[in-house]
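name: query_chain
kind: protein
chains: 1
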Amino acid sequence: MTRTTLTTLTEKLEWLEGRYWKFGHDTRFEEALADLYEVDDDGQMTGCPRRDSLTGETRGLMLLADSGSGKSAAMRRALRMLPALTDAREIEGGNTLFIEVPPEATIKSLAEEIATATGYPKFDSRAGAAERWEIARHRLVLKGIKTLIIDECHHIFRPGPGRDIPGAIQALKHMLQSDHAVALIIIGVPDLRDAILKEKSGETYRRFDEFYLPRIAAGSHEAEVFARCLASSARAIGVEMDPDEAFAERFLFADQGEAGRAVKLAKDTLRQALVQKRSHLSLADAERLFLKNTGFKPMTPFHPGDWSTVKAELTAMGWAR
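structure:
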């Protein structure tokens, strides 16, 4: 429900863009995050990472899921919802730094990105990876950063010129050691876990807990929540849906249960109805937007007709996104 009535198109579009569709995994993920931190006398999570009483090391967390499953959105929501974590990019003196790794990143460029985000001037081109990471770690301490979040972390493990996979594994481990240690959250596809497991000793892998965002299965509680979120958002912006057209089931089937993609497609379709000043959600709009991202397909889940019949035909065809 909205706190205020949405009247103008601008208000509705802004509300829809910022609306987070919460599924059952959010609470479990926040609990997994909380395990990385100390608690106060009231049992509430603080922003201070837990340290091993013998080694002084902190722990890390891998947030893993297929591309399009909503990993980044889940992390950003947790960052907003947990008062102990404050985004250093938005709040002066914030204790948490969120870094998104581009596909072309190397372990050296990631260290530079972290240092730059904390106000460090450009590195000398002759500086090696070890020196860059030492400076980056020092900058985190200097700026009071106690949590580092690395989104799309699997990119630093891609093979190719200038890439150092053993060095990348070591860099992650070092972030959890010594006085420079932080709570480290790395986000990526399941290949991220496989890459870290290539270290024969397994020392780095053992320092991380794992949390998987599952796909949404048809008929599950999460699918019911998705349907409620869709219906609630449509009502809030004044767009009607024909219940016989089974929009929620079609969106999830189209993206094979990948929550992030399904939410985006649903929101884009709602947005299209708003922009075109239509009072009802349209299967034709959903199909056009779906094909825009996937390319031509002879039949899609947004084909008109009874959903059970359409689904049966697609399944017989071996539907894949």
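note: The longest strand covers residues 183-188.
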